[in-house]
Amino acid sequence: MISFSLAGKRALVTGANTGIGQAIAVGLAEAGAEVIAAGRSSCAETVALTGGRELRLDFADPMAAKDAFAEPIDILVNNAGIIRRADSVDFTEADWDEVMDVNLKAVFFTCQAFAKAALARGAGGRIINIASLLSFQGGIRVPSYTASKHGVAGLTKLLANEWAAKGINVNAIAPGYIETNNTEALRADPARSQAILDRIPAGRWGEAADIAGAAVFLASPAAAYVHGAVLNVDGGWLAR
C-alpha cells in the first residue's frame, strides 16, 4: 500500500517562521510528523499551528546547524534563504557573500551534519532542499540568488549520488512565483506582476501551501525510490 503518512517521524524545517517554510511545517505536521521549526526570528506562530517546537538558528552563520542533530531527525527541509536585488553592474560583494552563505553554503553544511548523524546511528532519512525556477533560468537583478539556486540543484544531485545507497533520499523542490516576502517587490510593481501572471499557465501566483504537498510526498514512503529529483511546483511556468 502506498503511504504518505509521516507518523513517528521527526522533521526539522529551516526558515519556518513564515511563508513556504511555515506551510511545509504545517503540511508535515498534518501528515503526522513531529516538527521542529527553525528560524532566526520567532517561529511561535508555526509552533502553534503544528504543535511542534522551536529552534533558533541564524544561517548567516553557515555552520549554525552543526549541533542540531544530536537527537534523531528523520526529515530535513532546507528552506531558509534570502535574496538581494540590484543590477549586476552595481551588485556588492557583501550582498553576494550574504546570499551565498545562507542559500548554498549553509545548505551544504546542514545536509552534512544531518547525514553524519543519520549514518552514525545506522539510519536513513530524507533531505528536501528548496531550489527555485532560477535553478534553471537566469532571472534579472538577482545574480547571487540565481547562482545559489543553481548550486542547490547541483548539490542535491551530488548528495543523492553519494547517499542514496546509504538510505538517505536527497531531493529538491523548485517553487515558482509564490506569494512570499521574497516576491513582495515584484508583486508591488503592477507591470512586472502582470508580466509574470501572463507567463504562468495556471494564471495565478502560487501560495505557500502549494509547496506543502510536494514536501509531504518527498518526505513520505511513497517517494522511497525518488533520488536527486528537482520537482517544479510552478503553475506550469517552465513548461511555457
TrEMBL record:
<dbReference type="Pfam" id="PF13561">
    <property type="entry name" value="adh_short_C2"/>
</dbReference>
<dbReference type="GO" id="GO:0047001">
    <property type="term" value="F:2-dehydro-3-deoxy-D-gluconate 5-dehydrogenase activity"/>
</dbReference>
<comment type="similarity">
    <text>Belongs to the short-chain dehydrogenases/reductases (SDR) family.</text>
</comment>
<dbReference type="InterPro" id="IPR020904">
    <property type="entry name" value="Sc_DH/Rdtase_CS"/>
</dbReference>
<dbReference type="GO" id="GO:0051287">
    <property type="term" value="F:NAD binding"/>
</dbReference>
<dbReference type="InterPro" id="IPR036291">
    <property type="entry name" value="NAD(P)-bd_dom_sf"/>
</dbReference>
<dbReference type="InterPro" id="IPR002347">
    <property type="entry name" value="SDR_fam"/>
</dbReference>
<protein>
    <submittedName>
        <fullName>2-dehydro-3-deoxy-D-gluconate 5-dehydrogenase KduD</fullName>
        <ecNumber>1.1.1.127</ecNumber>
    </submittedName>
</protein>
<dbReference type="InterPro" id="IPR011286">
    <property type="entry name" value="2-deoxy-D-gluc_3_DH"/>
</dbReference>
<dbReference type="GO" id="GO:0008678">
    <property type="term" value="F:2-deoxy-D-gluconate 3-dehydrogenase activity"/>
</dbReference>
<keyword id="KW-0560">Oxidoreductase</keyword>
